[in-house]
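Re: Re: ligand-bound prediction request (bumping)

Still looking for help on this. To restate: I need the protein modeled with fe (ii) ion bound, output as structure tokens. Inputs repeated here so nobody has to scroll up.
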Amino acid sequence: MARPHIEPYVEFNEDYRAFDFAGYGGAEYKVLSLDVDTGASSLKVKFNGGYTRKPGLCYSDMEVFVLNGEIKVGSETWVEGHYSFIPAGVALGAMEVAQGAEAIVWYNDSEPTFEETDRDHPLALKEGFISVNSYLDCPWASGSIVSPSTATGCMIKLLRFDPITEAMTFLYCMTPEFMQDNISYHDCAEESYHIWGTSWMMQFGDLPTGGYFWRPPYINHGSFRSKLGCIAIGRTDSKLHNYFHFNPWTNPDDNQARAASFLYRQRPQLFRWVGAGGHNHPHGPQGQLKYQNPPHDFETPEYGHRPDVSALANQNYTFREMDHLHADEYVHKVHHAHKVEDDHHHHDHDHDHPHHHGDGDLDHKH
Ligand SMILES: [Fe+2]
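Reply:
Sorry for the wait, this slipped through. Here it is.
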């Protein structure tokens, strides 16, 4: 099981606990969310004054966002707003926290591990390392890096984008008097920690400073308001697509079916392939999906009858046969197919639509 839906959660109401994992003696933590199968977690960590750690690596991808204080890491000094992505196996320099600091720390693949070393693991994807002060060194951009987009007044600083999964880590803010009236859901899990300020959602009420959520896919959220504005750090685990609508009564199954109907309409061949059995698709339904029946779209229930939609969905491409043919072979095949058809309907065609097979027709090669 992946992580459960936690929303809204306010970490200020909970106490820190001693962090007794290797490498963390002298620090304390609160669990924001936890995958009990893999051990992956999102933590708030307090490094007490005098905390030190030798150089070393972790066997999980890690992300760190500094909320306050000052953390020396090797030759770098991380202060509030500092963001770092540390790929599994990349060795961080010695850590030293003179007067205390707090950070959000994510372990993306497993529970925290620590191995003392000053060398990267030979298989570490070092190129993925990120270390940047998001407050000082990144510009705010419009939220419209995805389309359809949030309302104006939701700005983002993209801190990390995974080109394989399209997972993102980003700082976002809502301007004072931000409002967005529609309801949103996504195919990805979405996570947020409120660094400062309060936002409001129709389903979950106020999320104040210290507020947190881990929201699995297809859960309605919105409309949105923020009276005085807010700043937060957010993450997604895969592609963020905004499915917007205005029906507050739909459940995640309704929403997922509607998302599938988008795939049915917009990428019909991929939809057919995923739904078909026999190709051992790792996440596929192994042929249970009835792609003859368009997935239900609560917003546009009759869409399957539209001729443009059904024509696309019912197209039968014969990739295996035609995919790698040389142009000459292709012409030959097309001609042959026509000829068979002609022979079958010889009399009808002769009377109604006489065919010309003179020079310049496909026939000329034979
Ligand atoms: Fe969202």
